[in-house]
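Entry for the shared binder. Reason: the reviewer on the internal report wants the predicted structure included alongside the sequence.
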Amino acid sequence: MSSKSHLPYATRAANHPNPLTAKLFSIAEEKKTNVTVSADVTTSAELLDLADKLGPYIAVLKTHIDILSDLTPQTLSTLQSLAQKHNFLIFEDRKFIDIGNTVQKQYHGGALRISEWAHIINCAILPGEGIVEALAQTTQDADFANPQERGLLILAEMTSKGSLATGTYTERSVEYARKYKGFVMGFVSTKALSDTLPESKEEGEDFVVFTTGVNLSDKGDKLGQQYQTPESAVGRGADFIIAGRGIYRAPDMVMAAKRYREEGWRAYEERVRGN
């Protein structure tokens, strides 16, 4: 994992065995951005406005679709159209954490029907390997137009103070990712994981790393969130930085998104040059 993170996105895209990860790296290279915006808004109008205005400057839009007070099928179809218009991926931050039978229904059914519109999902592995297996199986069995455009991030670490996602939990996250690498794109983590975990015996392993809690101005909040800058996040191994309030609560969110894109891209270029 460590050697690949210092390669250019274009190189990683060209050689990556996971089609969705390859597409993600291609988007990043084409748009010169490694920014994921966390759209923690509560109305469809806010979500779609944010997606349209910030879409040109981001690689991924991260949603919490269940906090929308007025979600409709039209919301989701418009969101998909905006993703195509601006060339970004949709990451539903559902954090699945249940037995396999339940998460399959949550992912592919229910009111949200997440599998139909979200390119990327994530899960915690507290239930064990079965949750990863179940989500991967759902994608294989579902009647998607393009099942290869669905992928999973394992929540290996968290940025909140006192997080218990450490040690053996993180090690198991990597084990499961390696076992289901056709579906698992990588991790949500605070850093690259290769320094503390055994290297894979398989040549060419390249998991993507998303890091949350990125903010240029604040150090945290009263609820335990701990922030880091784009430079520090990318320097520790993040391939994609996730920023929320620092962008959408800014006086001018478009200018803020541009600034995060510039800072994140500069940090990425420095990392590649340092190889």
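Summary line for the report: Strands lie at 35-39, 60-63, 89-96, 120-123, 151-155, 184-188, 208-211, 240-243.
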